[in-house]
UniProtKB/TrEMBL annotation:
This is Uncharacterized protein. It comes from Marinobacter antarcticus. Residues 1-23 form the signal peptide. The keyword Signal applies. The lineage of its organism: Bacteria, Pseudomonadati, Pseudomonadota, Gammaproteobacteria, Pseudomonadales. Keywords: Signal.
């Protein structure tokens, strides 16, 4: 194996292994935020903002972490407290925040249904 092939193999391994570590950490942190009878962590989605030009100095990607509450129509105070709880769980995990930032995310939103998102970071 020549040096170019070795460099390509190392780059491919780094490319494919880095998002997995970040995804596992995010899934672990988010699945532990609420007791099961309050809310269920569904997963996350990476979204690219088309309204920002590619040449802009800011990142175009943001992340949506998705939950479903056990209560169909939670009170406004309960919803606000739930958003705060998710955001604080993210903020307390400095390694996860660094990983998200290094992956190009400049914003994280929380969703508890398909209609609304609440910005965290």
């Amino acid at each position: 194996m020549n040096i170019q092939n070795l460099i390509r193999a190392a780059a491919a391994i780094a490319l494919f292994s880095a998002p997995t570590v970040h995804a596992e950490n995010l899934d672990i942190v988010m699945s532990q935020v609420f007791p099961q009878d309050h809310a269920t962590y569904i997963g996350y989605e990476s979204v690219e903002r088309e309204d920002i030009p590619v040449s802009a100095a800011i990142e175009r990607k943001y992340l949506i972490v998705d939950f479903r509450l056990a209560t169909a129509q939670p009170a406004s105070e309960q919803l606000q407290a739930s958003v705060h709880k998710v955001c604080m769980a993210l903020l307390k995990d400095r390694e996860l925040i660094r990983s998200l930032s290094d992956s190009g995310y400049d914003m994280v939103s929380v969703a508890f249904d398909r209609r609304s998102q609440f910005d965290c970071l």
